[in-house]
Amino acid sequence: MTTLLSRLRARKGSSAPDPLTSDEESRYRPIEWSLIRKLLRTLAPYKWQYALGISVAWTHVMMDLMGPQFVGTIVNFIGDILGETARGQSSGFVEWGFKKFTGPIVPADLSVTQAIGYLSVIIAIWALTVALSVILQRWAILIMVRTGENVQFFFRRALFEHLQKLDMSFYDKTKLGRIISRCTSDIGGMREVNVWGIAHIVIQGSSMLIASAMLWYTDWRLFVSVVWLGPVLFLVNRYFIKRSAVRWQVVREGFTRVSTNLAENINGMRVVTAFNRQDPNLAVFNRLQVNNTTNNLSAARLNGTYQPTLEVIRYVGRGIILVYGGYLIASGQMQDRGVGAVVQAYLYWDWFMNPILVLGNFYNQLMMAMAGAERVFALLETQPRVTDTPDAKPLPRIQGFVRFENVTFGYDPDRPVLHDIDFEARPGQMFALVGHTGSGKSSIISLIARFYQPQKGRILIDGHDIRYVTGESLHRQMGLVLQVNYLFSGTVLDNIRYARPQATEAQVIEAAKQLGTWDAIASLKNGLETDVGERGANMSLGQRQLICFTRAYLADPRIFMLDEATSAVDTGTEQLIQRSLERLLQGRTTFVVAHRLSTILRSDCILVMDQGRLIERGTHAELISRGGKYAHLYHQFAHSTAD
Amino acid sequence: MQKRISLYDTRRLTQGANMLPCYSGRIPNVSQATVTPAEVANQETHSNPPVDLSNRRLFFWMFRFVRPVWTMALLSCVYLTVSIAVEVFTLQLTGETINHIKSISLHDPAGASGLTLRQWFFSYDNPDAAQLRWLLTLLLLAVSGMAVLRYLREVQNTRFSMSMVYYIREAVYDKIQRVGFGFHDAISSGQLINRSLSDLNNVRTFVQSALLLTLEIVLVVGGYILLILKMSPWVALLALAPLPIWVLYILRFSKKVQPVAKAVLEAEDKSIQVLTENIAGVHVVKAFATQAQEIRKFRAATDSFQRRLMNRVRLFANFQPVIRSIASASHLSLFFVAGTLIIINKSKGLATMNVGDLTILGGAMGAILARLQQVATINEQYQNAIVSARRLYEVINARPTVPEKPDAIPLPVNGTGEVEFEHVYFGYGRGKDVLHDLTFKIPGGSVVAIVGPTGAGKSSMVNLIARFYDPRSGVIRIDGIDLRDLKLADLRSKVSFVFQETYLFSDTVAANIAYGRPGISRGEVEAAARLAQAHDFIQTMPQGYDTLLGERGTNLSGGQRQRLAIARAIVTNPRILILDDATAAIDPETEDLIRRGMRLTLFGRTTFIIAHRISTVKTADLVLVMEQGRITQMGTHEQLMTRSGHYRDIALAQLSDEEKVVPEQAPSHMDRVKDPQVVQAAVRTAGRENPAELEETP
Fold first, then answer.
1. Which domains, from first to last, does chain B contain?
2. Backbone angles phi, psi at B468, to 5 degrees
């Protein structure tokens, strides 16, 4: 399979860096024992279910494998009655048993009823095996699919639970789409292997072996005459499957370009219309479409060669069996086994051939599963950098002292974004963080929330180093409202009591009233029961912010952190937001990344940040009189508004 | 011989839709549009009447898509017919060959004539040998003919179906581009994307199978039945007896399966939604320490997903055995009847069927049953297509919301950009009016600021200037000409927009700036970027102006995006420039610089600025204050400050309670998740269904 991979790679390398495909993840991966071992370890708890499923499925296939024997027996029986053959031997064990039952068939001695009786018996037995096989088949499907899907869902849940443990640094560097495809397409790619993988190998392998044995047993010369087609078939099959995997990959990429272009232009329809881009856009779109058509045609040409080639091989095998079998019969070398034996061999040939095709296809699925499994396991093995230490204790109810002791921190340890930060906040104080973009304001908040761990120094809350308390007990006493007012789909009520699911509706209303947001919430279309839409799409910015405030208020945190929104809302809403914010901050230790002067003026202490350092601290009046960086920023601001 | 229905065919029925050789990705739940301005978001009315076509008419309507490619379709049908004829012929030939070989072996010609078998086979004068040679040659020809036809069919079918897709998709795409904003307000862009991809594909799939698969089923079933009839009417009768049950059962099953399959997809979407929201909102989850709660939520979602999936599995697990039982029953009774007939005829000394005939019967029966199973596929495709066709019809037959007059004129070259509203009333779709009796006249070259609370109709008003919508009544004129008399393209090339929500395309920075005038020089692009104060940050990007933007490219902050959008608007050198709240994310310092730069370029063009910041509004020549769809105040900043009213209220409120000191944020996790497009695209690319690698084609 190395060729497929290298071709895929080569194709990618040769083309210019294409923005749409350049970081696409590989769909295939060579089979690797370490991965297979990991996968098998995951499957281990289900081994008995798999074993049961496989043995049932195996029995079912064995039942089906008797089919040709019955056909052979019936054909020979009819042949005997027609007096066309005079035979000593039987075509197979079914006929052998049947002969035991009927004795040698002498057409002249056999009455019509007796003959029909014999025929009925053999067909009834055949019907029995078929019925048994049908029942077993249903059973096997149920067991195998249930087991396989259990494994699939095990993976989904394990991934999700693992994701909950990972820290922010993971989410910073991993794209959302990537994480989602881990849980969707990568796990999906493993499905066929988890459900049918082992069964495929066991059943197809054994049915091929048994079919060859049957073929050999029917007539060894017939077996030898067609068995060489097996390897040929396998090679031809692999040849085509490899190539077609490459072509389908091209088709997929081409189609992705069509759909991406379409989606982008529909989403940007206002811009398209405003800038009169309809004609050039249609030209681009049609070019992508032509490319898509060409790719599909090229895949179709290959497929159009592939399928007939397999068919031709199938017919060659059949032809050999018929002609050579006919020759053997005609030349009297097989006379005593009868035409039934040739028919039987003819049918077993299909049974011999199909597993080769199935296993050839399965190989690709296995490689696809390998690619998925590798990424899924890699994610499962990612260790969170911030975890509760083994001896972590729950944080008792805190008063709200927050203390940074010489904290140095960088998202990348080699490039600190905070240097030696040292300050202390007392319960109920409000701290405003001020400074340019990238000066480290948000990082301070992230550290208090223990999204990351500092490389040096420590952070104490009420004297407890937050490294040694449980995350749960810490976060329960913290509130955070960010610029992105994130809502989960569901009702307003669901969202408000997100952090305290056990809160009653009355408590929610009470909280909203205290905060002053109740009127705004009650005036929504369905009040608390209003659906906020996906990610809050049905709510305006202001409404979203008020809901987030109420959510934080209901959680009643001791320490509250706020990244003030910069987005413009109309003045009325803005005043409402300010009023409820004031209420929300009361009596809590608060850190605000401030974007509004009013907020800064209200704070007990301003921390002025510059390039990761805390350069000034104090109240507004103190800082202005000091005439430092803050005073400069303030004058700049005052100037721009006075202009 | 009977086609084996194996254990591994569980998904055969559902794969039906996928069986054609074209890739059709399912687009999972592309959510709400982002382009609709907030003021429109709640409008659900629709400017086009809903489609009230009967299913029957929709059915015929779908086949109109074949018209442009009818020659290809015809050729496909011809190949199909010929190849089925060959297939039936091959089976008959096989039977005859078997019979012939057997009859030869009975009178043992080789042994009798004293020749070796090889000598006998190649002997010229022996009629038996000659016939065998002839039969084998024919068989060889038939098999290779089938192979060639198979290839031709595959390629031709793809060509036919891809060309059909090409034309439909082009039509849909172009309609969506030109139909007008009113239509886009009514149908979200997520829906439109779905319509032009999956709905279109459903219709295409159905039209193709309705033509080809139906023809195939009819021909195969008809052909083989004829073959059987020729051999033995009794057996034919028996063979046909279970067919109606078979078809009925399959149809009933596929009807039963649909809601179950739909429920599975819904449950899957739901669990993906929980996952996506969890990851996008990871900071909320962590901040409130609700991991356990989230895990419970996900468990509940996956539990219901799993339960529904197992329902579907059980349904199929029941389906398989029934189907196989019916098939086996007819197969076995075929053997029984044929055998009995032979025995009885033999006893009466009549001519009987023989082994070759049995082979033919078995083969024919298997082929008929296998093909009839496809009825379920067509049925399923029809059910999907009829729903999709309705949605597609709605797009293709949508009337343009702002039609261009046939005798439309271009805007005169020497206009100054004078804008006049005369008693303009406007509402979205059939909703109530959002603009009432707007009357004003802006002299060319002015800078007009529009202020007012959210929902006052500011964006709606400026949208009318580019004729994105037509007013319900009243007239809007630019340079004295009614907008409805103008060529749309000409009008829009003279009116440039910077929208409230910045939309950039995944292309280079330069291409995004030159969007309205592709092909301009790099110098012009840079000049515009400098004016918009974007040049400096573009310079610091990895590839400067050639840096790719978008999902797979560099992330920009809100302020940077807005500056690019401003550059994009400036570059078209419009007569009228509209900035719809376009500087909200830009800090006052930079905004000030932009304003200074633009003061030069604003010269000679009319500019409308929607803004919340008084500092932005102050320098305008004219301020329009809008409240509840009406203009309530008009004048310069100084004039308005002397009058009591909305303007003075907000101005005073803002001056005492000032805004941003530090605005721009570095791109971070939050930035990415807050951009709904990114999230949507992420969900889209995470598409789950992959087409089977090598699907057998019809």
1. 52-232+384-400 (1.20.1560.10), 419-658 (3.40.50.300)
2. -70, -25
Strand segments, DSSP code E, in B210-252 are none
Per-window interface: B 295-324 vs A, CB < 8 A: 295, 298-299, 302, 305-306, 309-310, 313-314, 316-318, 320-321, 324
Binary contact (B515, A175; C-beta < 8 A): no
Top mean pLDDT of A10-19, A511-520, B90-99 is at A511-520
- Residue B339: name the closest of A176, A70, A23 by CA: A70
- Position B78 scores a pLDDT of 95
Class of domain A391-475+596-643: alpha beta
Domain range A32-380, CATH class: mainly alpha
HSE-CB for A64 with a 13 A CA cutoff: 29
Q: Give the model confidence (pLDDT) of B42-64 as tens digits.
A: 333 334 445 677 888 888 898 88
Q: State yes or no: pLDDT of B222 exceeds 80.
A: yes
Kindly state whether B515 is in contact with chain A, defined as any CB-CB distance less than 8 angstroms: yes
CB distance B516–A275 less than 8 Å?
yes
CA distance A468 to A283: 62
Lowest mean per-residue pLDDT among A94-108, A406-420, A490-504, B591-605:
B591-605
Task: Give the pLDDT confidence score for residue B113 in this predicted structure.
Answer: 59
Q: What average pLDDT score do residues A87-103 get?
A: 76
Beta-carbon count within 10 A of B364 CB = 28
Closest chain B residue to A154 measured between Cα atoms? B302
**Contact list, B107 vs chain A (CB under 8 Å):** none
Partners of A278 in the beta sheet? none
DSSP state, residue A382: P
3-state SS assignment for residue A605: strand
* CB–CB contact A176 B673 (8 Å): yes
Q: Is the pLDDT of residue A192 over 70?
A: yes
Taking the Cβ of residue B134 and every Cβ of chain A, the question of whether any pair is shorter than 8 Å is answered with no
Q: Which residue type is seen at B35? A: V
B contacts of A364 (beta carbons < 8 Å): 693
Backbone angles phi, psi at A15, to 5 degrees: -75, 155
The beta-carbon neighbor of B588 closest among A164, A435, A641 is A641
Share of chain B above pLDDT 90, in %: 18
Give per-residue pLDDT as tens, A432-455: 988 776 678 888 888 888 888 888
CA-nearest residue of chain A to B270?
A489
Greater pLDDT, A482 or B204:
B204
pLDDT band at B107; cut points 50, 70, 90: low
Q: Give the minimum alpha-carbon distance from A34 to chain B in angstroms, rounded to a whole number.
A: 26
Q: How far apart are CA A266 and CA B9, in angstroms?
A: 39
Coil vs helix vs strand at A303 = helix
Determine contact: B653 vs chain A, CB below 8 A.
yes
DSSP per residue, B423-442: EEEEESTTS-EEEEEEEEEE
Q: Closest residue of A to B467, CA-based?
A: A274
Report the chain A residue with the minimal C-alpha distance to residue B613.
Answer: A568
Interface of B with A in 411-440 (CB under 8 A): none
- Collapsing DSSP to helix, strand or coil, A76 comes out as helix
The shortest C-alpha distance from B61 to chain A (Å) reads 24
Q: Which of A76, A246, A574, A641 to mutate to test the interface with B (most CBs of B within 10 A)?
A: A641
The Cα-based distances of A205 to A351, A353, A358, A360 in angstroms read 11, 11, 10, 12
d(CA A455, CA A461): 18
For chain A, the structural domain boundaries read 32-380, 391-475+596-643
Kindly state whether B453 is in contact with chain A, defined as any CB-CB distance less than 8 angstroms: yes
User: What CA–CA distance (Å, rounded) separates A113 from A126?
Assistant: 20
B695: left (phi over 0), alpha (psi -120 to 50) or beta: beta
